[in-house]
Fold:
Amino acid sequence: MDSVTSATFVAEEPSHGLVRKAWDVTFRMGLRYIKNSYKDDPFRTFLEVCLIGFIVWYITKQKYNIGTNEIVLSEKEIDELVDEWKPEPLVPALTEFEREALDKAVMIDGPNGTKVRLASGTNNKPVLNFASYNFLGFLDSPELGKHAVESLRKYGVGSCGPPGFYGTLDVHMELEKQIAAFIGHSSAILYSQAFTTTLSVIPCFSKRSDIIVADEGVNFAVQKAIYLSRSKVYWYKHNDMADLERILKDVNKQLVGRRGKNALPRKFIVTEGLFQNTGDITPLVDLVELKHRYKYRIILDESYSFGVLGKRGAGLTDHFNIDPHEVDLLIGALCYAVGASGGFCCADKDLVEHQRLSGLGYCFSASMPGILTIAAADAIQALEVDPDNYLGTMRENTTLLRTLLKRIPGLQVDGVAESPLIHIRLSPETLVRMKRSGGTWTKTDIDRVLIELSEEALKDGVLLMRATYVDEHERLLPNSSIRICVSSAHTRKEIEKCAHAIKSAVSRITSKKR
Structure:
């Protein structure tokens, strides 16, 4: 027994000795570290002591116990509370008019184009489509469609990833170069959706302490982008350059003498090329002059003017023959005139590369599918090769339809002559004659009349659509109207049929007293 004990003691003695030796070495190294750090850098020692003290305080302090104030309820009380609880709806309930408009909404069955078939109704005959954005008629191009379908074998349906993470294809880079060359700017960047292009570009450059001076007639996407930027916003009257200059002067005066890190904020003028809500065009010549005079940058949304304005269809800068570099950030869409999807931003190379790291719609959205990228590239190439064919026909159709519409009694036609985006509404005098009681018209009343007008036109085989808005979110709520989209793919007979259908519809609805 003694021999066993002594053997165990002998075996344990070396292990205890090793532990003691390791502790001594560790203690000496720690002591030497403290001496050296105090000698070489006493501030670091002080900081470490404070950190250790904070850790000890945090571990030992009293924690808040959420269960200390717990109220114990009986089963009966729990049942009563559950019975009384009424969950709020995820979305507000539809109003009577909204439900009525939704029930009368028209759905296209099949491919979109200048002639479409509707899912509703007993008659399956195709109708003329003047409601969809198809300015250059590329939605009706069998050549573009065939080439795009062939690309499915190579690129598949989608990229399934953002551009910065295995989502960039060779056709994306080629299209960016093609767009930049077509517009005449330094560089371009692609986004997968037109709406999110605007929502990404403006907040990417204009931040909380910056200043935006914007046209109050800009479309919903631009309004939301300005809101997301959290910048200081000033609104000038729609297309009023005198009011814009007044605001630019006032803002610059406010900045005189300002000190601190926000003394020199970035300043932007934000507007549209072709206004979606009115069909007007921005006077870019005056805008560029004010930009240089008051030291601002221009953000121009050319979603509806790209492929429409100018000798080549390159947009507002082409229309006014202005160097595209005068526009600091030029935003465009590929879904209205080009007939594809997505959007782009043209700018100097540094500004484009900044978006690849900070543009939310670029960084966190899947890139544009290859099939749509190829469709956009083919459409732009076709426009470059033969601009007179597409632009000339579209402008002839626009001029003809505007002329015929202006001859219709009781109808008001808005927008500039060059715009294929036409807003029509009943004139104030016509509305007065229609009101039997002599009371005032509400916006809902006018919207109901316009829905009725589009239904009457549909009976004659012409599809029209009332312009809809998110009323409570619009900065400047446009007057109720029917928005007509003219296409170069429409024939002269189809344009005349559209005008005749509108004339008949106006005649029928204005003859009714309300």
